[in-house]
Write a structure and sequence with these properties.
The complex is a heterotetramer. Chain A is α+β, with helices and mostly antiparallel strands. Helix content of chain A is 38%, strand content 20%. Classes of the chains: A alpha+beta, B mainly alpha, C mainly alpha, D mainly alpha. At the A-C interface, loops of A face loops of C.
Chain lengths: 316, 212, 186, 651
């Protein structure tokens, strides 16, 4: 589910193809040279002369010269073949989609913000760490960094691209098959570089459209008193300072948006499965799970925590 | 630990093939070891400066205007005066090198003294030359690059000035062996480099912003 | 004599190392430092310093990581909206040595936690104690009140002010209006 | 030995004459005894030996860090090391291995061996050599004191801003920037020293086409250092340190700076750095193969040209570390082509060595075993290197464990395997006793197995998506088993190094005595006793071929006439090595060490306050003054300025 060996897009497939080919040729070369070195060492051609050194006849010397020259020539040919193959793959990968779905990805220490571009800014959908894409269509990513350099990499779909402060870089791919593909930050970005994963969720266009519709819906005001209590805690004890929930007054973009939190499979940038126990674990002390993450620990009483988690669990 | 003999025990009998006792012990220019180490130092420092200049031009691409908006041009007056002083200093540099090669100690002392005065003046003027950049290192990347380039050259300058002043002092306060004449020529050799490399830097850092 | 010299040198080295250790410590998963004990009841509604007994250093004054986290929070909580990178605007400047409510760590903690009249909101329900202490360390670093090695470097922003690490050291006594300890007011 | 094939005995230098000369030279060249003598030593062999030992200690330190990291990664979500500790460890591991072990030990081998191999009394600048060593020691001590004071650098040995600037509070990355400064100075000083030694102090008759291949490798590497190290000096000592300390904006995009500038500058140094590490490694191989195959190397000229072209290409590859950054596609293609081209000279070298083995009759002593280990591992690293040159594949494999595997195969295979071989080969020369052959074989096989068990699984881990520099990973990634295998392999490497250490200690104390030329090898370093005396050679040997000890079958021709009452070396002309003049070398001195100390004040102090820099420079000035003053005072006349017209070159 997270591997170069299982390509799920034309881009990743081209590279995987290149890889297997290079592995075959490179492995043969390695085996050939090593076996030949062992053979040469085991079957020496020299004859000990009076000076205590080994000498060979001029014919043998000539033959060895030809073998060495031939090996050098073969090296050049193989490299040339590699180069041509690589350029053709590179050329295929460089075909830039001029239009289509564009997703802005911003790398933060240590989570991913994703925004679906739309001509109408009010229709832009913002989500975090899990990016839904339709299959069978080219998707373009515009990548920016909010703090340090990160690198966006989902090996099943395409190679990585660095997110660099001051630059916007682009990446594109077309997912062939529906599935959930793991990706991870590949450029060292500080304390929690290891726990900065994301998921690409490729769905058939119909399903994707349904997701889009769901994702753009704001949350309704809860009616249940426990849930109202949970919402009040969310708004008043610091959660809303960083997180947003569409349809409420929480609008901050400092941390990941939580509007449809429960529609995600994982929390904390792919670190924990999105279950109630894990939510409790995370909210009561994120520093236990991801030391250094920017979300602090809060002191909640038992009823407060229960109400808050219950409220979060309604964010479908 | 080793208890081996310290005498050289050769693997083979030794056959004398030549005698070197009549070779000179003092040589000048590329025959001397110091000349080569000076050259090595020059390559290292020159290359560092070149990399800084390349970085300066690389950062140039990030700006529409150069110097950036609201940053004044560098002044030209003081840098040009200092450039003239540097060119002027070549006279005692060349003269002291020639005197040293002639093993002419009185002439060497005279020229070294003049050389010292001029290089000292150059370092003093360099202080105002830094401020003639008319920006600060922490204003923007342009300022950082310009200050670092001129500052780095200043460190080369200071090193050479210390060398020249020290050499002059030595010549005036103590007997000097013949081989120190060779050191005096290498001192001038390094000074040509310091001045020579400044000319492109001057053109790029002080004149350049008016052009590109 | 020589032995004592070595002991002294050793002790100094250890002290130096200990100082470096605290400066470099990343206070991650640990209980936050306690808030000042008595400020809650004593916040006056009129301008003026909070009178407190505790003039000790802030828990994170000498901690580079916390000051830097404070810098991040300062940005994320939009403190610059009023304090404009510490240069002042709607709110008072933070990089000079004028302090309306005192410059002691506990006083600044009180200011951030409880808020002040004329616009400074209370943050105690939005930030936890650790975060407030991080902000205290950063705010104090802006005017050079914390040790130099612990102050943050410049940010990747337009150059509007020298970074805290470039601010000259301000001795605590020089900071004006730095509320005297309660005991000396009697 | 009788003289039946050579000259009559009366034309040879008599035993008494040699002993008299040797005693006088010993008096002149020996460093002073006692603690003071230890601190003031300038003998290139003394300094070289210390350099090798210090650098090897750094290998052990880096190895311990690696073992800790491997233990942490042995299973998913391990809690042995916190993220904070792990980041300090992997940064220190990289910095130690690259800057404090690999480059210094390779130059140290050169500083010890090059003067002996070219038949010189000493290195060109013995005091500057001592200064370089002490500067390096300051860097070593500084990094490790910092690490134990919780100030170990933690933004990677590549220190990408803005993580290394704005997002690295405290002094951790300042430490990194200045540790790099010390190693730059030490490496540059060593490089100039080696270049001038090779250019000016070669034995008469050692024209360019007779220079031993190890010396060629060292010469080429010295030139690479001269052009590569200033880049990292520009980057770390100037730009990075300035951005951190005085608010400059080199890497602040909001004020016109550029973080990619750092990557260009750093890799312009960083890629040649790899070749700086393994070209000397390749240099070790030729004499080992020649000696144990009992055959002169096949394709001397090709091997020299391969060294030179590798060095040139090495400066044209740096962008292949930046394929994932937004830089133009066309530029990337050029760097791909260059990265593949560099495989050609390396391939040619390997083919020449195999041909030499083929045409000789190899006996598999430990040094040659390590060369075979080199073939086995290095070629693997070379091939994955060619793969990584491809932009498309690199975008997948970049910054993953695949690259970790690749670089360790290249550096352990191309650098450390030959280095261990070199240790076994030259240990008798340096210490006078041979290393144990049995323990050596244990060392070799454990090391070979350990390296492959550790690093081979990492290829697969990388392709399965495991990024580099992670302190842990989730169980559901499935990376656990292969990581466990790699960790076990890491322990095998550790055991092999312990075996080596035991071997060194045992053999140093009670190894088999070596004699001047234990392997019956061909280079000039084997023409003198083991260990060599402080003056290296009683008489300067004359070189008549590429293999002096093999070709001058009975006697060794030598030059007489250098003074023995002062430290005099014979300089020769740069190209054809004709005797040119006699140069007086300096005595031992404390000022190199003092000056290195002042460099410590300047650069470490620069982290804290500019006043330390000024104070340190003032102290340095005093040191320079005293250094110069003393060397003039020690001068022993008389000097001779002009050469007599005809010095018959009878060599």
């Amino acid at each position: 589910m997270h591997s170069l060996f299982d390509p799920q897009s034309p881009q990743a497939r081209a590279v995987a193809h290149l890889w297997w080919w290079m592995l075959g040729v490179g492995g043969t070369v390695w085996l050939g040279v090593v076996l030949f070195a062992i053979y040469a060492a085991m079957h020496p051609r020299g004859n000990r002369a009076s000076d205590g050194l080994e000498h060979v006849s001029p014919e043998t010397h000539h033959r060895v010269e030809r073998v060495v020259a031939g090996a050098g020539f073969a090296t050049v040919l193989i490299l040339l073949a590699f180069l041509i193959f690589d350029f053709s793959v590179g050329h295929a990968l460089a075909v830039h989609p001029q239009r289509g779905l564009t997703i802005d990805v911003v790398g933060h220490q240590w989570w991913w913000e994703a925004q679906y571009e739309d001509p109408d800014p009010s229709k832009m959908i913002s989500t975090a760490n899990e990016i839904h894409v339709p299959t069978g269509q080219m998707i373009q990513f515009k990548l920016r960094a909010a703090d340090v350099i990160h690198s966006f990499w989902a090996p099943n779909l395409n190679g990585k691209r660095d997110l660099i402060p001051g630059y916007t870089s682009t990446l594109w791919f077309k997912a062939d098959t529906a599935g959930v593909y793991r990706g991870q930050c590949a450029e060292f970005c500080g304390l929690q570089h290891a726990k900065m994963a994301f998921y690409i969720i490729a769905e058939p266009p119909v399903k994707f459209a349904a997701w889009m519709a769901a994702a753009s819906r704001p949350q309704d005001q809860p009616t249940d008193s426990t849930l109202l209590y949970g919402q009040r805690i969310f708004m008043s004890s610091g959660c809303a300072v960083c997180h947003s929930i569409a349809g409420t007054e929480a609008r901050s973009t400092v941390g990941p948006g939580l509007t449809h939190l429960k529609s995600r499979n994982t929390i904390a940038a792919g670190t924990l499965a999105n279950t109630r126990e894990n939510l409790v674990k995370w909210v009561s002390n994120p520093q236990n799970v991801k030391p250094g993450a920017r979300m602090p620990a809060y002191q909640f009483t038992e009823p407060q925590l229960t109400a808050l988690i219950s409220y979060l669990e309604t964010l479908k | 630990m080793t208890t081996m003999t310290t005498m050289a025990t050769s693997a083979k009998p030794l056959r004398p093939a030549g005698d070197v006792s009549q070779l000179p012990t003092v040589v000048f220019g590329s025959r001397s070891l110091m000349w080569w180490s000076t050259l090595g130092f020059m390559v290292v420092e020159g290359w560092t400066l070149a990399l800084l200049v390349v970085s300066y031009l690389y950062l140039r691409q990030n700006y529409e205007a150069w110097p950036p908006l609201r940053t004044p041009y560098p002044s030209l007056l003081i840098p040009t005066i200092n450039l003239a002083l540097m060119l002027l200093s070549l006279i005692p540099a060349i003269a002291s090198q020639r005197a040293a090669k002639r093993l002419d100690k009185p002439a060497l002392k005279k020229w070294l003294l003049l050389f010292s005065v001029i290089v000292f003046a150059i370092v003093v003027v360099r202080w105002w030359e830094l401020w003639a950049l008319n920006t600060r290192w922490d204003t923007n990347a342009y300022g950082s690059a310009a200050w670092t380039i001129v500052g780095f050259h200043t460190s080369l300058l200071a090193l050479d000035v210390a060398d020249t002043l020290g050499l002059t002092l030595f010549y005036f306060v103590r007997p000097m062996p013949v081989k120190s004449f060779s050191d005096a020529t290498d001192n001038s050799f390094y000074w040509y480099f310091t001045v020579g490399i400044w000319i492109p830097v001057y053109l790029i850092v002080y004149v350049g912003p008016r052009i590109f | 004599m020589a032995i004592r010299g070595w002991t002294l040198a050793g002790a100094c080295t250890l002290a130096l190392l200990a100082a470096a250790c605290e400066r470099e410590e990343r206070h991650l998963n640990e209980p936050p430092p306690k808030p000042p004990t008595q400020f809650v009841a004593q916040v006056p509604l009129q301008p003026g310093p909070t009178f407190i007994n505790d003039t000790s250093e802030g828990p994170y004054d000498d901690n580079a990581y916390s000051a830097s986290e404070g810098q991040v929070l300062f940005e994320q909580m939009n403190c610059s909206g009023c304090h404009s990178n510490g240069g002042g605007g709607m709110g008072p400047a933070l990089m000079d040595d004028e302090w309306s409510y005192g410059s002691l760590p506990q006083q600044i903690f009180a200011t951030i936690a409880e808020g002040r009249p004329n616009g400074m909101p209370s943050w105690k329900h939005r930030l936890n104690n650790q975060q407030i202490w991080q902000l205290v360390s950063y705010v104090r670093s802006l005017s050079g009140l914390t040790p130099k090695g612990a102050r943050p470097n410049r940010e990747d922003h337009m150059m509007v002010k020298p970074s805290p690490s470039q601010t000259p050291q301000t001795p605590q006594s020089k900071a004006k209006n730095s509320g005297l300890p309660l005991s000396s007011m009697k | 030995m009788s003289a039946d094939a050579g000259l009559p005995v009366e034309l040879l230098l008599s035993e008494e004459a040699i002993a008299r000369e040797a005693a006088a030279l010993d008096q002149t060249w020996r460093d002073k005894p006692g603690v003071w003598g230890w601190l003031t030593a300038v003998d290139h062999k003394t300094i070289g030996k210390r350099y090798i030992i210090t650098a090897f200690l750094m290998f052990l330190a880096g190895g311990i860090e690696a073992a800790l990291m491997r233990t942490q990664l042995a299973r998913p979500e391990n809690t042995l090391l916190s993220a904070d500790k792990y980041n300090q460890l992997f940064t220190t591991h990289g910095t130690t291995m690259m800057f404090l072990f690999a480059v210094p030990i390779m130059t140290a081998m050169g500083l010890y061996l090059v003067p002996l191999m070219v038949g010189a009394r000493s290195i060109a600048f013995p005091r500057i050599n001592a200064f370089g060593y002490w500067t390096y020691v300051v860097g070593v001590v500084f990094l490790y004191v910092s690490l134990f004071a919780n100030t170990g650098p933690d933004a990677g040995w590549f220190a990408y801003p803005p993580l290394s600037t704005v997002y690295s509070p405290g002094h951790r990355m300042d430490v990194w920037a200045q540790v790099v400064t010390f190693t730059e100075i030490a490496a540059l000083v060593a490089a100039v020293n080696i270049i001038v030694t090779v250019f000016k102090l070669r034995s008469p008759g050692m024209s360019l086409n007779r220079i031993p291949l190890f010396v060629w490798a060292q010469l080429v590497v010295a030139f690479m250092i001269i052009f590569a190290m200033p880049a990292v000096a520009t980057g770390s000592t100037l730009m990075l340190a300035e951005d951190r300390a005085i608010n400059t904006h080199w890497f602040n995009y909001a004020e016109g700076g550029d973080v990619l500038l750092w990557q260009h500058i750093f890799w312009f140094f960083g890629h040649p750095e790899v070749y700086i590490i393994f070209l000397p490694g390749l240099g070790f191989i030729t004499p080992i193969i020649e000696t144990f195959a009992r055959r002169k190397v096949f394709g001397y000229t090709a091997l020299v040209m391969a060294n030179v072209t590798t060095a040139f290409f090495a400066f044209g590859l740096w962008v292949h570390h930046m394929f994932a950054t937004p830089i133009p596609e066309l530029g990337q293609s050029l760097f791909t082509a260059a990265s593949m081209l560099i495989a050609i000279p390396t391939g040619v070298q390997i083919f020449c060595w195999i041909a030499t083995l083929w045409m000789g009759r190899p006996t598999f002593r430990v040094p040659l075993l390590f060369v075979m280990g080199f073939f086995f591992t290095f070629i693997n690293g070379g091939i994955t290197g060619v793969m990584l040159a491809s932009v498309g594949f690199d975008k997948q494999a970049h910054d993953t464990f695949f690259v970790v595997a690749h670089l360790h195969y290249v550096l352990l295979g191309g650098g450390i395997m030959p280095l261990f071989g070199a240790f076994y080969f030259w240990f008798p020369k340096i210490v006078g006793r041979k290393l144990s052959e049995t323990l050596g074989k244990w060392h070799f096989w454990l090391f070979l197995i350990g390296v492959n068990v550790t690093f081979f699984p990492m290829h697969i881990l990388g392709l399965e998506g495991m990024p580099r520099r992670v302190y842990t990973y989730m169980a559901n990634t499935g990376w656990g088993p292969l990581n466990l295998v790699a960790t076990i392999g890491g322990y095998v490497i550790a055991i092999s190094v312990v075996v080596f250490l035991v071997n060194v200690i045992k053999s140093w104390v009670a190894g088999e005595l070596a004699g001047p030329n234990p392997w019956n090898s061909s280079g000039l370093e084997w023409a003198t006793s083991s260990p060599p005396p402080p003056y290296n050679f009683t008489y300067i040997p004359v070189t008549t071929s590429r293999h002096p000890l093999w070709d001058t079958s009975v006697e060794l021709p030598v030059m007489t006439g250098l003074r023995s009452d002062r430290r005099e070396v014979l300089t020769t002309t740069t190209f054809d090595a004709r005797p040119d003049h006699r140069h007086e070398h300096p005595e031992g001195s404390i000022w190199p060490m003092y000056l290195a100390g002042t460099m410590g004040v300047v650069f470490i102090g620069s982290i804290f306050s500019p006043y330390y820099v000024l104070g340190g420079l003032g102290l340095a000035l005093i040191g320079l003054f005293m250094w110069a003053w003393n060397s003039i005072g020690e001068h022993k006349g008389p000097d001779r300025v002009l050469a007599p017209d005809a010095l018959a070159e009878r060599a």
